[in-house]
Design a protein that fits this description.
By secondary structure, the chain is α/β, with parallel strands linked by helices. The protein contains 10 helices and 7 strands.
């Protein structure tokens, strides 16, 4: 009914990435005003809300603790149920807001700054991980490669824009292999980009940022597409979805749309406004968790790491 996002990007841009202590402090400063604005835009009072949903894992622990403690206080003060929501489950649920016709089971690719997962969505609250990153996540790789190229934070969107002006065949980049065919590894790819730039600098050569962006984005998207589509085909899924911050990347969206069409699959993806972190997606997943009776008490804690298929609270 409303969606309010308080962004910290401009401040973190000064440091080339998220500074956890600053992020936590800004959460403290903003959360009351954001909740008030959300209620105002929804034309509701806090008493009219049925339940309070909150992200409790995984993520930066300081920022999570701000949200969890605020939500616990709100739920206690209003005598409302407290619904703990897993962050990656929330990203997947963003698709339900845009596509109410999407129903499990289906296969979902979650690609964000901290996560790269291939997930079987067996039910709204039941998941099975088929593949995950064994080192860097796709979004993290985008940001670190972008920083090496001289782009500001967050670098993913700058690489996306530059790639549209470049030649993806100009530079040859590695396609890392993993023991599990559906796992991802982006650390070597990130290192290859950094080494390529450093070697060129040592030789006094100029790197074409547009061409390198195009080659990098093409490589990442093809890795994600190949493994995701192969997993969906092996498991017999004809319905697939994309979620997470990297779902905003135009190259990945186009790559998966084409692959889905070629394989006769129905493809769902969230609008750009719901790809990055937002409360609407957490509210969407909280609805399904609430229906399943997944309610926490005042002992709810935050967790920096937790697998999507092993939720505990």
């Amino acid at each position: 009914m409303s969606s309010v996002v308080a962004t910290q990007i401009e401040e973190h841009k000064l440091y080339g990435g998220v500074v956890p202590e600053i992020a936590s402090r800004r959460h403290c400063e903003s959360i009351c005003a954001v909740v008030a604005e959300a209620l105002e835009k929804a034309e509701m009072t806090a008493e009219e809300v049925d339940a309070i949903g909150v992200t409790f894992a995984p993520g930066l622990i300081g920022a999570l603790l701000v949200g969890v403690n605020y939500a616990k206080s709100l739920a206690f003060g209003l005598s409302k149920p407290l619904i703990p929501v897993h962050h990656i489950r929330g990203h997947i649920a963003a698709n339900y807001l845009a596509h109410p016709e999407l129903e499990p089971p289906y296969m979902c690719l979650v690609a964000s700054g901290g996560h790269s997962h291939i997930v079987e969505v067996l039910d709204y609250t039941e998941f099975r991980v088929i593949g995950r990153t064994i080192d860097d996540a796709a979004g993290e790789c985008f940001d670190k490669a972008a920083r090496a190229m001289g782009f500001p934070y967050p670098g993913g969107k700058y690489i996306d824009e530059a790639s549209k002006l470049g030649d993806p065949t100009r530079y040859s980049l590695p396609d890392p292999h993993t023991q599990n065919p559906y796992d991802f590894s982006f650390s070597g790819l990130k290192t290859a980009v950094i080494n390529l730039i450093h070697n060129a600098e040592q030789k006094g050569e100029q790197i074409n940022a547009n061409d390198l962006s195009a080659a990098f984005q093409h490589t990442v998207c093809k890795i994600l597409e190949r493994k995701f589509i192969a997993a969906a085909r092996e498991k017999g899924y004809k319905k697939i979805a994309l979620a997470g911050g990297v779902a905003a990347n135009s190259g990945l969206r186009a790559s998966l749309e084409n692959a889905a069409r070629e394989n006769g699959m129905e493809f769902f993806l969230p609008p750009l406004s719901l790809c990055g972190d937002n409360a609407a997606m957490i509210g969407a997943q909280a609805f399904y968790e609430f229906q399943k009776g997944h309610i926490a008490d005042e002992s709810l804690n935050a967790f920096a790491t937790m697998s999507i298929d092993k939720v505990r609270f």
